[in-house]
Request: fold
Amino acid sequence: MSIRRLPEKLVNRIAAGEVVERPAAALKELVENAIDAGSTRISVRIAEGGISRIEVEDDGCGITAADMALALERHATSKLPTDAIEDVITMGFRGEALPSIASVARLTLESRVAGGDGWKRVVDNGVVAAEGPAALANGTRVMVEDLFARVPARRKFLRSPRSEYAACLDVVKRLAMARPDIGFTVEHDGRRVLDVQGGQDQLTRVAALTQRDLAANSIGIDIDRADVHLGGVISLPTYNRGIADHQYLFVNGRPVKDRLLVGALRGAYADLLARDRHPVVALFLDVPTSEVDVNVHPAKTEVRFRDPQLIRGMIVGGLRRALDEHGFRSVQRPAEAALAAWQQEPVAPPPPTLFAHSQSPPAPMFGAVDAGTTALLHDRIVDFAPPRDALPMGRAEPATMPVPGAEAHPLGIARGQIAKTYIVAEAEDGLVIVDQHAAHERLVLEQLRRGMGGQAVPSQGLLLPEVVELDEPACDRLEAAAPQLAALGVELERFGPAAVMVRATPAMLGAIDCHKLVTDIADDLAGYDAALGLNERLELVAATMACHGSVRAGRTLSVAEMNALLRTMEVTPHSGQCNHGRPTWVKLAMDDVEKLFGRK
Ligand code: ADP
Ligand code: MG
Reply:
């Protein structure tokens, strides 16, 4: 078999497979080109999720008529001033986007440089279809129609216009976040869906492109290490999502979806979020170009760091510290919707039927009411009373203690308990509600973590040591982990071939079901036997143990116990969220309380 070169058209199609696997990918290349052209405004119009049409118009430097043919040729680029690919600062540099797109769609390129005439060139699935003068303002307009119309194998893999549209919007959002100096608009099927002005600073732009309440629920990041800078915002763990799509990561101004970065982010939030919850972040990493290779992925979404450990350490350590400093915070304001629900809950008016049978107008309650009405009234009240066991369980003790200053005691002073689950406290600046179970679980976990760090967890000896029978491998595992478990406050020893004797449990858990605790620990140690190291398994054990705390939902707490819980929360890192990323407490600001009553 003789070796021959592939024809240009085929080469382009093959490249197109990598560069433009879907409309969003083509759109990304076009917007990047517009950015590289020094544009100040970029308008995007797409139809049917970009499948039938993508249009990108910019006011950048433009392409001369003479260069236009070259721009559509493979590996032709104006962006490598030196021979060193490491030094590129432009978005593009591979010179294959336009020819690749043109090989699998109908591409119309129109452009005009300042002081020149407009020119246009149409390439239809790899074949030049038209060329000639064009009328347009300075800048470039690229239109891509019927992507993959002649490549059915690829067209088949496109998803619904809705999901292709979502991907397109995501692409523009990310690029717009990277370049707050440029104005962007997006129109989908004639509807304006994104519009940001140029000249914004980074955080304003992030705020404009994410959910409005992120700003109030995030922490600013600004970290320098060696020549590397990490900036941006990260959400409090309580402000999380079920999918990781709101994680905007940038390396040297380039949006990336890099695995190392995503992994480091996971690490930073490791035990603050349930495995299936994800923080919202916009993080901008700036690294000297010699430290990073941006040319490892055709769509340029992955990068390779020369010193991945440095980057990983910086992200995990830096974010962790920032989260520690704000660990106590929780989502500060109830969501607008929640507030609205409060507002909409009407105070039940007295049922109109109460007096309907009475011929005379309603008599004053304490006045002379005839016997019949009284009886009716009485009956009705009994009728309308909810079943006995569904009575709201509220309880309050005399509010004698003064409210402490918000600065030192943001959680305030306990005033009562609702449904044996929620502590109601009065803070200087608002009304605080604490989920006692979630909060306690978190406190226990933090204490156990300190235990793993060498600060032994106080244990409480059992009056009578308890013998727990388990199968032999489970006992072996418990025995092997005994020294580590002791540091976590669980003291146990082997007791014959198929049992362990438990002498003490963590004091903080209170009186618990010892048998169940030890069985669960054994399960944790077994379940992850092969996959994880002992320390990681102990992390899981700690989380399991935390669930065993006796301050569960449904336990009546004394005011002293409630206050003790609040005070401990105030000094414990990460007490603002439970082990699953839900808030442990919420505060209704005084302002909001007053709004509820129409006082503001
Ligand atoms: P690359 O961006 O990697 O250089 P492309 O195939 O995307 O490769 O583009 C080829 C060339 O066409 C670019 O180097 C640039 O000179 C020119 N070009 C493409 N789009 C634009 C635009 N919107 N404005 C000005 N020049 C452009
Ligand atoms: Mg390009």
Remarks:
- The chain has 18 helices and 25 strands.
